[in-house]
Write a structure and sequence with these properties.
442 residues; 15% strand; alpha/beta; 5-stranded parallel sheet; disordered C terminus
């Protein structure tokens, strides 16, 4: 086996681990997030002959799993995770503007890629004699559904999905609560930040540590975030091969996992130009880049609910990558978009391009419109479409004046019965729910 590639905590006081160990740990013991100790280097020439997502993924992730027990299984892992397309759809005839559709998976959101990769890894790592693994996931909309779908009926694994009661779209809530079996849906009386806080507190709770074997499936987990770099790698390679230019991305952003995946792909050496973050009215990150003062705040509910994050966890990884503020400012920019601007952009996107966009994708389109004209024309821009508009029909349909088609995958989920439990935003409530039910049933 080759020399082991290691990951360290963003807080620096936990021992470095190989890929599988960091994946199973989820959150580092010191409360930090795992990041590479060093960065491998890849360029376009290293991907010769690799065009489809599984092949690009195997080449990109190979150095990160070097020396790990999953090293030899990597091609099978990427084939399982990237079994559906991520098409790049041109919006202008010269290819200067395109949209990357990441919603063709089983739950119609970009998080299907990372969730399926993580599930495939856990399935190979878990030994039959080991105790049941409990996966905790906080979600502002799409993560929970993707994780539930990826882990549903996997033997030896239970999933607890925490979502903010009343703060996700009706379609998203159906996706989060239609499982039963080894998936338990918990509607938290609070915000997404409360859900995220509860998950982190659970990992540090000695009582729960004695009762259950816990890990995470949010983008705080390395095994969720790292595979998301694959579609950025594949898209940038396609643009570079076609035009000899770098692709610049506008990424709808909340907890910053998807943004970090793009930045990590660029850090490795993929032909990626500018990276611009499109936030909704939760403007903690844009304000930080402007003022230099980090001020996490209570999240605000918006139309782009999956991005309603006031204290994004992956800021730790962003700071680890760019420790100095000026370095961060030169590497990434961020804009905030209001609900009224989201509505307008959904309407205009349909009128101008015949595109039906979810509120998150519309934030990216709105940010592109704000860029200076010379910058828009001087780059090849890719808008990242993170969710299918069918998940937000009650928002989109009145704006475009017609029904939004619902993907067959969502239709199948809607036919399932709803199962959900409400809890207070307190560790004691989560502890009682997790600790009081040794074996979950439907």
């Amino acid at each position: 086996m080759s020399r082991a590639f290691l990951f360290r905590s963003s807080r620096g006081s936990a021992s470095p681990l190989r890929f599988s160990a960091a994946l199973q740990q989820g959150l580092a013991p010191d409360g930090g997030l795992y990041v590479p100790v060093t960065w491998p280097r890849r360029d376009a020439a290293d991907f010769g002959g690799a065009e489809e997502l599984p092949a690009v993924g195997a080449r990109l992730l190979e150095p990160f799993v070097a020396g790990d027990v999953l090293q030899d299984a990597l091609p099978r892992l990427t084939a399982e995770a990237f079994s559906f397309p991520a098409p790049l759809v041109p919006l202008e005839v010269d290819g200067r503007l395109a949209v990357l559709e990441l919603f063709h998976g089983p739950t119609a959101a970009f998080k299907d890629f990372g969730a399926r990769f993580l599930a495939a890894c856990f399935a190979r790592l878990r030994k039959e004699a080991e105790p049941t693994l409990t996966i905790l996931v906080a979600t502002s909309g799409d993560t929970g559904g993707a994780v539930a779908a990826a882990f549903y009926e996997r033997p030896g694994i239970e999933v607890a999905v925490l979502f903010p009661k009343g703060l996700v779209s009706p379609t998203q809530e159906r996706q989060l609560t239609c499982w039963g079996g080894n998936v338990r849906s918990l509607a938290v009386r609070g915000t997404f930040d409360d859900c995220q806080r509860l998950v982190k507190a659970a990992f540090r709770d000695p009582e729960l540590a004695q009762q259950r074997s816990l890990t995470s499936a949010n983008s705080i987990n390395l095994g969720r975030l790292l595979p998301q770099s694959v579609y950025y790698a594949a898209t940038s390679l396609a643009v570079f091969r076609a035009y000899g230019e770098r692709a610049s991305f506008i990424v709808p952003s909340g907890n910053l996992g998807n943004a970090l995946a793009c930045l990590w792909a660029r850090q490795v050496g993929l032909p990626i130009g500018d990276v611009v973050l499109a936030h909704n009215a939760n403007r903690t990150v844009p304000d930080y880049l402007t003022s230099g003062v980090w001020q996490p705040r209570q999240s605000r509910p918006t139309l782009a609910s999956a991005m309603d994050v006031g204290d994004p966890s992956n800021m730790e990884r962003l700071r680890s990558l760019f420790p100095q503020l000026e370095g961060m400012r030169s590497a990434v920019s961020a804009y905030a978009v209001t609900d009224d601007e989201i509505r307008t952009r959904i309407e205009r996107g349909y009128r101008q391009y015949g595109q039906i966009w979810c509120p998150h994708t519309a934030t990216a389109a709105e940010v592109w419109e704000r860029l200076p004209a010379d910058l828009r024309r001087g780059r090849r821009w890719v808008l990242v479409a993170t969710a299918h508009p069918g998940k937000f029909r009650e928002i989109v349909e009145p704006l475009i004046g017609q029904e939004v088609p619902v993907p067959p995958a969502l239709t199948r989920l809607f036919a399932r019965p709803v199962q959900c439990v409400e809890i207070d935003a307190k560790l004691s409530a989560l502890r009682a729910m997790l600790g009081g039910v040794p074996e979950w049933t439907s």
